[in-house]
Amino acid sequence: MLHVGLIGIPLGHSGSADYFARHHKDCRYCAYELPSLDNLRLLLEQEQLDGFNVTLPYKTAILPHLDTVDDDASAIGAVNCVSVRRSGGLMHLTGHNTDCPAFAETLQPLLQPWHRQALVLGTGGAARAVSHALQQLGIGVTRVSRTPRGAGTIGYGEVAALINSHLLVVNATPVGMWPQVEQTPLPDTCGIGPRHLCYDLIYNPVESRWLHEAALQGATVCNGLSMLHRQADMSHRLWTERPRF
Questions:
Q1: At what angle do helices 99-107 and 225-241 cross, to 10 degrees?
Q2: How far is it between the farthest Cα atoms of the chain?
């Protein structure tokens, strides 16, 4: 049996362990809330983990702790899946990003020809994966941040001016996630209408306040549950391949 898990903090919202228990019975999947990554390798040895997923707030912070990072994760600048290999008493950690392809695969069936420009709310590890996927699909990306820096990033106060030309909006922040379910990443619908596609990476609650309000305006909405399941399946495949190093 594979010993795998999830590293991050907090983890009370996560549905990963339940999904693995139902769909990947060859795994023991546990959640590990870590206040820091300082003792990561000690944890891996104590628990004899074969791999682990990474979530908030460590998708970028994990990078210096890895021995190698695959090409896709390196281009994205974020990791949400790590393979652990052992040989000759050595432990080798390889970082991957399954968020990016999982997001792309679950988004594509929803896209319409007018979804050519996107607003991505957030600038963390999940937002990096989303932005990379959109760029690969030929969709223009403008990131939205509370502290905008550099070209291609705007503040939340500028969203209303772009909402009519950016008909795909992705929430890649934890705002609105359980237990703070009354929060929303946008103060109001900001002009969202029937031609908009609103994708929220949050899946707990199943319908965030933001998605609920967008749906009332006629927008097509999608939560992050299918993305969670797809990236979990991809992670499982990476762990079971177990190449030599």
A1: 140
A2: 59
Strands of 140-228 (E only): list them: 140-145, 153-155, 168-171, 197-200, 220-222
Half-sphere exposure of 117 (CA within 13 A, CB side): 9
Strand partners, 52: 5, 82
CA dihedral 19, 22, 24, 29 (to 10 degrees): 60
User: Is 42 strand, coil or helix?
Assistant: helix
Choose among 225, 220, 124, 206: nearest CA to 172. Answer: 124
pLDDT tens, 133-151? 999 999 999 999 999 988 8
Is 144:153 a contact under the CB 8 Å cutoff?
yes
**Is the CB of residue 82 less than 8 Å from the CB of residue 67?**
no
Fold of 2-98+228-241: Rossmann fold (3.40.50)
pTM, 2 dp? 0.95
Residues with catalytic function: 59
Q: In what order do the strands lie in the sheet with 140-145?
A: 153-155, 140-145, 117-121, 168-171, 197-200, 220-222
**What fold characterizes domain 100-226?**
Rossmann fold (3.40.50)
* Residue ranges of the chain assigned to CATH 3.40.50.720: 100-226
